[in-house]
Structure formats: structure tokens, C-alpha cells
């Protein structure tokens, strides 16, 4: 755990972008039950947090993807964060839809990106990696070179890590589930016992969800 990842985790808990509740789990869109719920769009409402996150993502991009020529956000949550980064770096910006429009030009990518442009994709959260890698695939199919992906937070699922490796897409998150759990204990947001229960979820989310729903 480094200072940046810990500070991001603390900010996410403070502004309630991330919520933890073992006793009354949240239901994700997929129907899976989870003790954690993350909506990093909440951070946009807090100028100091928003600015810190943007600055740290820019640092990561410059350090690891210094040849970037444009920024692409993943709709919808990655749009605002991506635009903030592109503005800070004075780079072109576009965003990738989850699916092409059903009318007009039927675009899957909104905005203009030069063919062959070296692009960093911006996502707010990585869970299974499905939506993030769909955006990467769409960009590549349109002749764009994806040099990497950055996100504010990730759940640390091994299956997601493998998917990124399989598609040859390097990604970096400012913070992750393990750091968040540690910070939550240190700040008395959760107890050690609750942390143990949450840790069981992180090892096998589906099994945990099935057990809770049984």
C-alpha cells in the first residue's frame, strides 16, 4: 500500500463513493450480491478530491504511457474523468459507447481520433473488466492503438487481471480493494471481523453471493 492508493481509498470512503456493508449486501446490476458498492462519479462533486484524482491519473499516464496522443473515456462513468485528464494534458478526447448508436452514423466512438493514434483509455472502476475491454476492442477495431488503461479503483479480481493479460492491455489503478479494506479497518469504518467476511467475498464473489442469497 503506497501513500497515493491509501489516500484515494480514504477519499472514496469519506465521500461515500465506496460503501461497505456486510450485514445488508448490495445487489449489483448483474444480480450478484456484494458487501461493497462503488460509484466513483460521486468524487466529481468534491473539487479537492476530483482534482487530486485527476492529477494522480495524469502522473500515472505520464510515467507509464508517456507516448500518449489522446484520451478515451469509457461511457458513462469514464467520460467526465477522461475529459478532465485530457484537458489537463491538453490532448484530444473521445469516448466509447457500450454499443453503437442505433440511428444516425451509428457511432461506437464519439469524438475524433486520428487513425493510428496512441490512446490511453480511462475508466472509473474495474470489476470484471468486461466493459473496459469492450471499449479497448472497439478502439482497436477502428484503427486506434491502445497503449494502456487507467482507472481510479479496481476490485482486484484475478479473472479480470487474466482478461487484461489475454488481450495484451496493460492497466493501472490508483487504488484497489485490498488497500480500501486496510484503510477501512484503520479508520474504524469496519471491524476486523467484518473485514474477514469481506475478504471471503473478494476471493470468490459469486460463491459469496450465492451463499448470502441461499
The shape, in one word, is globular
Mean pLDDT: 93
Number of helices: 8
Span of the ends, CA to CA: 35 Å
| CATH topology title | Rossmann fold
Lateral strand order in the biggest sheet = 7-6-5-8-9-10
Strand fraction equals 15-25%
Describe the overall structure:
The protein is α/β, with parallel strands linked by helices and 214 residues long. Helix content is 44%, strand content 21%. It contains 8 helices and 10 strands. The chain starts with a helix and ends with a helix. The model has no long low-confidence stretch (mean pLDDT 93).
Question: Can you lay out the helices and strands and say which pair or pack?
Answer:
Layout: H1 3-14, E1 18-20, E2 26-27, E3 33-34, E4 36-38, H2 47-64, E5 70-74, H3 77-89, E6 93-96, E7 109-110, E8 118-126, H4 130-141, E9 145-154, H5 158-166, E10 171-176, H6 177-186, H7 192-203, H8 205-213
Parallel strand pairs: 5-6, 5-8, 8-9, 9-10
Antiparallel strand pairs: 1-4, 2-3, 6-7
Helix pairs in contact: 1-6, 2-3, 6-7, 7-8
Overview in brief:
The chain has helices spanning 3-14, 47-64, 77-89, 130-141, 158-166, 177-186, 192-203, 205-213, and strands at residues 18-20, 26-27, 33-34, 36-38, 70-74, 93-96, 109-110, 118-126, 145-154, 171-176. It is α/β, with parallel strands linked by helices.
Amino acid at each position: 500500500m503506497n501513500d497515493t492508493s491509501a489516500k484515494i481509498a480514504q477519499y472514496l470512503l469519506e465521500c461515500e463513493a465506496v460503501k461497505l456493508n456486510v450485514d445488508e449486501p448490495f445487489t449489483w446490476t448483474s444480480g450478484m450480491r456484494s458487501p461493497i458498492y462503488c460509484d466513483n462519479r460521486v468524487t466529481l462533486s468534491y473539487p479537492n478530491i476530483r482534482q487530486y484524482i485527476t492529477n494522480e491519473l495524469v502522473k500515472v499516464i505520464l510515467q507509464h504511457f508517456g507516448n500518449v496522443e489522446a484520451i478515451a473515456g469509457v461511457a458513462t462513468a469514464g467520460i467526465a474523468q477522461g475529459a478532465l485528464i485530457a484537458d489537463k494534458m491538453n490532448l484530444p478526447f473521445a469516448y466509447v459507447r457500450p454499443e453503437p448508436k442505433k440511428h444516425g452514423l451509428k457511432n461506437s466512438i464519439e469524438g475524433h481520433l486520428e487513425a493510428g493514434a496512441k490512446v490511453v483509455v480511462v475508466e472509473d472502476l474495474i470489476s470484471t473488466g468486461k466493459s473496459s475491454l469492450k471499449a479497448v476492442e472497439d478502439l482497436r477495431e477502428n484503427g486506434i492503438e491502445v497503449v494502456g488503461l487507467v482507472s481510479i479503483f479496481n476490485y482486484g479480481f484475478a479473472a479480470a487481471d487474466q482478461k487484461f493479460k489475454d488481450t495484451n492491455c496493460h492497466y493501472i489503478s490508483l487504488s484497489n480493494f485490498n488497500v480500501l479494506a486496510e484503510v477501512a479497518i484503520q479508520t474504524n469504518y469496519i471491524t476486523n471481523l467484518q473485514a474477514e467476511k469481506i475478504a471471503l467475498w473478494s476471493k470468490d464473489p459469486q460463491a459469496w453471493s450465492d451463499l448470502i442469497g441461499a
